[in-house]
Amino acid sequence: MEANGLIYTHDELEAEYDKLLAIAEKKGASTWQMRVKQQTPHCKFGEDGVCCRICSMGPCRITKKAPRGICGCDAHGIVGRNYLRFTAGGSATHSDHGREIAHTLYCASRDGAYHVKDEAKLISIATRWGIETEGRDIYDVAHDVALAGLEEYGKVFGYQNWIKDATPERQKVWIEQEIAPRAVDREVSKALHMTHMGCSSLPEALIRQSLRCGLSDGWGGSMTGTQFSDIMFGTPMPIDTEANLGVLKKDYVNIIVHGHDPSLSEMIVEYAEDKELVALAHEVGAKGINIAGVCCTSNEVAMRHGIPMAGNFLQQENCVLTGAVEAVVVDVQCIFPALGPLSKCFHTKFITTSDTARMPDSDFIKFEAETAAENAYNIVKMAVENFKNRDQEAVYIPDMKRKATVGYSCEAIIKQLDTVTNSQVDETGTYQPLIDCITSGVLRGAVAMVGCNNPKVRSDHGHIDLMKKLLKNDIILVLSGCSAQAAAKYGLMSKDANEICGDGLKRVCTLADIPPVLHMGSCVDISRMMNLVCDVAAQWGIDTPQLPVVGCAPEWMSEKAVSIGNYVVATGIDTFLGVVPYVYGSSEVTELLTNGIRDWVGAAYTFETDIEKLGDLMIERIEEKRAALGI
Ligand code: XCC
Ligand code: SF4
Prior knowledge:
Elements: H1 10-27, H2 32-39, H3 44-48, E1 51-52, E2 60-61, H4 75-107, H5 119-128, H6 138-151, H7 168-176, H8 184-194, H9 203-233, E3 239-243, E4 253-258, H10 262-271, H11 275-283, E5 289-294, H12 295-305, E6 309-311, H13 316-321, E7 327-330, H14 339-344, E8 349-352, E9 363-364, H15 372-385, E10 402-406, H16 410-421, H17 432-440, E11 445-449, H18 461-472, E12 475-480, H19 481-490, H20 503-512, E13 517-521, H21 526-540, E14 549-553, H22 559-570, E15 575-577, H23 587-596, H24 598-601, E16 605-607, H25 611-629
Parallel strand pairs: 4-5, 4-7, 5-6, 7-8, 8-9, 11-12, 11-14, 12-13, 14-15, 15-16
Antiparallel strand pairs: 1-2, 3-10
Helix pairs in contact: 4-6, 4-8, 4-9, 4-22, 5-6, 5-9, 8-9, 9-21, 9-22, 10-15, 18-25
Bound molecules: FE(4)-NI(1)-S(4) cluster and iron/sulfur cluster (SF4).
């Protein structure tokens, strides 16, 4: 243990994970650790992005001896097209999540399953979007806002409504560079069209559309996902929770919620408290029903209800390996198909709920907004009834968990800052205290750390080692996605973690009564970070690329992460990746992403697989930006 037993070391946690692996081996169950061995080394053509199979004359692979595909496309065209398709996959995915949420809001009603919790946010959005609010029933307003949100996906003319929340400078850059996002579906379709056989093979055009398609995610679909979720489920405020496998309870029915869409998890959380179902749990010999989360669903319910976090992406199999989980309930994205066969080695029910994510070896209970209550009841009931099939003797729940304070939405951050500086707490609040801390040098800057786990980086080491390094250097962190859960599992999201910070950061966090690592939510909530940087820049009177702030995804793996990277960079934030996207097969595409796009949007990517170096480069960049500002 470090910092007087407050923060786990890698060795302590890994010793416990190894015990679960031993259980898997004994059961003959397959785990990702085993499958990584079977898949390594990876295909070099794939890694470099130089394999093309977008027409049936191929697949073509570029080598020194064969520098062009059958159609004549060179490596730069192929890599660029692959990169744009990768982006389109991510943008479509995030945006479809946002669309589901918009649809849920459309279904909200006074006596239905979904309600309007944050009226102020709803009214504010309606006003910004020109929707009448005066004297109207709040549910009529919600209905109109939801419909307008849905229409953003296919709007015929104009740009995404949300971009008006960015700084005027950003909007100008996007329009001038022809990357301002139009209809969400259009940008994805455009990407697929451009990458069809015989269309674009010019790297510049492909990367430009990659940024645009990313922006339609960040300032389109994802923003809708975040904002509309807040309207229905509440804007997150700081709340205490716990993280890691020790949150599972031996005497309780344990249900894991995993995936992304809070429309499902919110209802599961509600029905875990249903009197009938709790009584049923007692009847089958359990003390009650315990919900714990994995991946972004976990972030959603942790920051709104304090539901504990069982873990992040590469922890999903571990949950089942404890033998203590009655059901893993999933919706969409980041769900290992491995959970099907794995759950068959245990008593665990693997319950799929979305027609977007159907998997073999699962029980499918279709979950829809219109029938949410009934669906959620049936799902929880199936889990509770499964308790009697648990082999209590074989249960192994590692005794490890850490306290975490989560739920720092922009509104929460402003509120927290206000309590420090103001005797007269102003209604709207400002980021001025934060700006003062940065200009005075007490804080050197901020890093937005996000993203997944990826076996290419030793699990969680990338996140945790970087966080510790940055904290020591007085750099405050805002986190989302699986990065956030990594921090929580180790103890870095607790106020106790102030102990390992540099003096300046420690002082600020103690005064503001915050942990040095702020939890901002799920992957779609990176949209919150975009609002944060734009609003801070606006208040400071500078543009986003000037801020001593960088983005980082040390262990990313999904298409969504590349889409995110593109919109973060296009929003003017330099972005540092610890896993290299499949682009090294083209010097031109690599040059554009790591340098050329700086001329368009004022920021670019850095790829570096040495995590120590990645940290040094981020600190260097932050200090460069400070110097340029003369602070
Ligand atoms: Fe998935 Fe969102 Fe990545 Fe985690 S961080 S592995 S995308 S759950 Ni967004
Ligand atoms: Fe080969 Fe060109 Fe077809 Fe790609 S589009 S598979 S490079 S022929």
